[in-house]
Design a protein that fits this description.
The chain is an alpha/beta fold. The chain has one domain: Metal-dependent hydrolases (TIM Barrel), CATH 3.20.20.140. About 2% of the residues have low confidence. The structure holds zinc ion. Zinc ion binds next to loops.
Length: 441
Amino acid sequence: MKYYDVHCHLFTHDILSRTGSSILSFLNRFLTDSKEDSCTDTDGRLRRISGFIDTALADDALETFKEMESVYGAHFAVCPLCMDLKYSMIDARPGDDHTAAETVAAVGSYEPDNRGSYWSFRRIVNFFSGNHYSALPNMFADSFLTQIEEMERLKARYPDRVYPFFPVDPRRNRDCDLMALIKQKVGPGKPFVGIKLYPALGFSVTDPFLYGSEKGSGGLYAYCEKYSIPIVTHSGFRGYAALAKRIEVCGDIFHTESGRPVPVREIYPDGIVSFPIKEKMSEITMRGYLFNHPVLWEKVLNRYPKLYINFAHFGGDKFIYKYIHESSTSGYYTAEILRFMAKYPNVYTDLSCFVDNGKKGYSLSEVKKEIYDKTKLSVRKKFLYGSDYFILKFKECSLQNYYARFREVFGSEMRKIASVNTGRFLRYGMKPKRIWRRWLW
Ligand SMILES: [Zn+2]
């Protein structure tokens, strides 16, 4: 029986260094903003980043795949999720795009507490900035095609072991015919099994490229729904996010006062959202909140109720913790995903990057006992296993320990979350769905 890790990343040195400045500023925030991470001391954070860099230095995805294989064995297949990072750094006002340069300067002037941290830190900065902060030629270089080619090579070598997800940022459509490219690359018999979305990179989930026009024609969701092509989207308000301070948005954003999705131009007449909006929220949370709120997804699912979609991370640490320890309403994102899973036939969630978080966080066995075991079968069969390797390294957790912990907690249910359910979620990305056509005469 084949098992799947439905959520991992095989970014390589080449891909990450091309988007070096955006990764660098992410690391900067990770280091300096305590809201982003439960780990409060700088040394601990540096250690985590250093672990991440070790894998990020891989020259090709094969190296990381082999590392995963040594833990999982040959009966496992993996789903690497690609991301189009280019537009997340581009400021909407041309000529005013200092964001990246500012960030690189900020990181350059950052002073870690002690010598050990200092050298880890220098190593990280050097890796991404090519040894000097002022040299920014690679800043907006594009890793989009590099990633696609890298995945195509890996897929050709391991056709039954690698099922990549194609990176979609609707803004890419300005630079190429994105829909044509998707049709060429994604689906049964093609290198990619599905679509990866990451709205916090700076686009709305109701962007017309995805959602179609307001009248309901066209759009990627319509295509994916018709052929049951699976989609993986990030959920929760944490993780990586766009760094630009002004982002031009098409479609709806979440409107705090009304709690509704509202066309962006009703709030920002020129369609350009300016940050920061709320001082209380971290930069990453703000972007997730505006672009990736469950209320926006409800609008999508209303129109495309049969969409095969995985809300990755089950709403994220904070909401899962609240759901278990406070109330289902305070665990808002997690509660909403559970509601979607009950209401819509093909909504799934993955338990990826699920590391026991010590005192303040939830444990995997709590998730199993308090949520998984208590949900009805029709919902339970839509939980998927994922690792988020090698982002997992940010949590200082080896894949070996991660997988062992899952087997220990889930026992015989592991077969369901890693094989039966994942196989069902991915199936039409692998084998064509029969579309019954009405006989015309
Ligand atoms: Zn991930």
